[in-house]
Amino acid sequence: MRTVLLLPLATAFVTPHRRIPALQRGQPLDELEATESGGPLAWFLRRDNPLYVSVPSSAANSLIAEDAGVYDFEAQKEGWINFSLAVGAILTALAVLWIYPATGYSDDVLHWLEHDVCGDNSHLVTLAFGIFFPIVHSGLASLRPLAEQVVGARFWRVVFASCSLPLAYSWIVYFIGHAHDGFEFWNGEPIPWVHGLAWTINFLSFFFLYPSVFNLKEVAAVEKPKIHLWETGIIRITRHPQMVGQVMWSAAHLAMVGTTFTLLTMILLVGHHVFAVWNGDRRLKDEHGERFELIRERTSVVPFAAILDGRQQLPPDYWKELLRAPYALIAVGTLGAYLAHPYMQAGAALVENTGLVKGGILDPLFASLG
């Protein structure tokens, strides 16, 4: 049984005809055999490698919506320079205008929220973030159809990111720095089996959390953003994988750190995503009409419910809808995020210890307007 399950994965990387030559240290590039003829990268750059070119399942011809996670390296290799420049510009602006205390304003906003509004109560601060962030995030998403008619899809994506990213950064950093605040019900961090279970659930959660971010060029507005109606992959398990992933992620982190602060933060995060189930269905209905109703009939919000009651029929080669490059990228990114946890904690401590550096780079502009 194990051999049967591993066989499709193995065929993606094994060439049955001949051994692929290895790249030798110091070998001149002009002496290497061309990739198309079986050179050093031929093991990957093959049309039958599902991580290079997505392979549709046997249900592809019966789809009424989009096949999720489809990727063709050759068709999508252009535009990545523009993507890199766009992401670099966005992250630079975020760092200068928000993150770096000497030039940004995150410390000013947090100081005002923490000391002037919430009276140095960290629970009230995370409550404020948990109310304000969903209003901004879901509010701007709901305004998208109207706003795109006025300013265009790409510009509205920039507006959306410019408002959501700073708030998300500040809330995440504040959570990391204050996760142990309040009354502690339990502490699962030193218990090996709790850590292992939490790690596994957290790892799996990211395959649910990011199914709608398959086209990174749309995220960075390099390509025109669209409201996609997916039908395959994780969507067959649950129509709202981000909500399910958030529940899994929150449960895993709460199992590790059982404080009142962490509990409140997780309730706020899950609450936002539960609201997004209704809001997301409403937006998809407005955008896709009858096609969405057909998808809703054959999918479920509760994981596996539509499969168990027969409304969703998994194709026999369902694995082809999951063995795709975006899912591999999610796996690598999730492992990287886990390894980066000590640096995240150190960064949050640095932000906490730096404190308030009043003002920022836009002060002269604000002064002239005043």
From TrEMBL:
Keywords: Membrane, Transmembrane, Transmembrane helix. Residues 131-343 form the NnrU domain. One of its GO terms (cellular component) is membrane. It comes from the Eukaryota. The keyword Transmembrane helix applies. Signal peptide: none annotated. Pfam families: NnrU (PF07298). It is found in: Membrane. InterPro entries: NnrU_dom. The chain crosses the membrane at residues 83-103, 123-143, 155-176, 196-216, 247-275, 322-340. It is a multi-pass membrane protein. Its main location: membrane. PANTHER family: 15-CIS-ZETA-CAROTENE ISOMERASE, CHLOROPLASTIC. This is NnrU domain-containing protein. It comes from Pelagomonas calceolata.
